[in-house]
Amino acid sequence: MINLKINGKEVQVPEGTTVLQAAGQVGVTIPTLCNHPDLHATGGCRICVVDVKGWRTPMASCTLPASEGMEVETHSPAILKSRKTILELLLANHPRDCLTCDVGGSCELQDLSYEYQVQVPEWGTKGTRYIADSDPNPFVRVDMNRCIQCTRCVRACTEIQGRFVWTMAERGFDTHPVPGADTDMLDARCESCGACVAYCPTGALSDKMSYGQGRTHQVKKVMTTCTFCGVGCQFELNVKDGRVIRVTSTEEAPVNGNHLCVKGRYGYDFIHHPDRLVKPKVRRYLIEGKKKKTKGKPWEWVETDWDTALDLAARKLHDVRTNFGADSIGVLTSAKCTNEENYVMNKFARQVLGTNNIDHCARL
Ligand code: SF4
Ligand code: SF4
Q: Could you tell me which of 332, 330, 326, 333 has the C-alpha nearest to residue 354?
């Protein structure tokens, strides 16, 4: 164990702990931008700089290992001035479009600028440098004018999704992320998982489907479990005026944390789709009998209530079993069901119907 002092408070941490992590242990929050606990630290943005007694220059605490006897100051006047200057330099290259930005209210750059009371400097940005919404990806909206070059998108795509889509291009003032060799995202083998969006601290990468439909503080977030497969990922449905306008991942999700696949993050438009079946349908002749048949009509799907539909299904299964035996029936379950639902279907097939003919769509 290593003993050090942070703002005069003694703290003991295991070897390999960074000063940023050690500060967290004693309730001291050091601001960060390029750092994220899910991603490896790069020490790029320098917002997390701290003073270390006896050291000449401020150090980035996210990459600084705690060492024995270290005495750290996280909020000295010189450090606060440093952070303000860094924020001012970031804002100098940033568009002044917080009023219309989709992540206004949930932007880490905005929050820090507020906390440190930093304004966009008058000598700053002379206008947009990149085309807004520049990538044809149907789910990810790219606006590199809002990029602060933190590289979180690069690391999220590499370390979490393993697709290596983003890389940093150009030098100095022109440095910015590009997909592949400066192509578009899908061409660079993007799977549209949205991890880069989830980890981007600004509005440079945002969700295209919900753009302009509602900011974080305008929606009610409802935690739920994804219905697309049996992994059990959880996420938040962002609900505005009774409609789901977006899905956001959350570190609170025990199985998946901030990570989701394209289906979980962006496959939600079926919820309010006009073609969605919300009531059971059965063939007309099953309700009205074949006598009334006119050409084509008896086979027509008609809406009915659940009791009628379930009674019909039960009666038909019973008839088939009586006339042809239980093994003439087979049951196919689905990866879109929960484990519990699949278990119940197994019981239904074997114990209610009396057949071992049960299989799962994942074997097809
Ligand atoms: S959407 Fe996913 S796969 Fe595509 S660039 Fe972003 S992180 Fe990589
Ligand atoms: S696009 Fe977002 S995550 Fe990527 S470098 Fe820019 S600000 Fe950071």
A: 326
What six digits make up the tokens of 254?
Answer: 């025990």
For residue 152, the ligand 2 atom closest to its alpha carbon is 3
Tell me which residue has its CA closest to atom 3 in ligand 2. Answer: 200
CA distance 265 to 353: 38
One-letter amino acid at 98 equals C
Q: Where are the domains of the chain?
A: 2-75, 128-266, 277-322, 325-364
Closest atom of ligand 1 relative to the 160 alpha carbon? 7
Of the listed ligands, the closest to the CA of 193 is 1
Fold (topology level) of 2-75 = Ubiquitin-like (UB roll) (3.10.20)
- pLDDT value at position 120? 84
pLDDT of residue 186: 97
CB distance 264 to 241 below 8 Å: no
Give me the DSSP letters along 93-131.
Answer: TS-S-TTT-TTTTS-HHHHHHHHTT-PPPTTS--S--S-
Instruction: Given CATH 3.40.50.300, say whether it is the number of domain 128-266.
Output: no
pTM for the structure as a whole? 0.89
Residue whose CB lies within 8 A of the most ligand 1 atoms, among 193, 260, 261, 263, for a mutation test: 193
Nearest residue CA, atom 4 of ligand 2? Answer: 153
Closest ligand 2 atom to Cα of 154 = 4
User: Parallel, antiparallel, or unpaired for β 140-142 and 234-240?
Assistant: unpaired
Radius of gyration of the chain (CA): 28
Cα 274-246-155 angle, rounded to 5 deg: 135
Residues of the chain with pLDDT under 70: 126, 290-296, 363-364
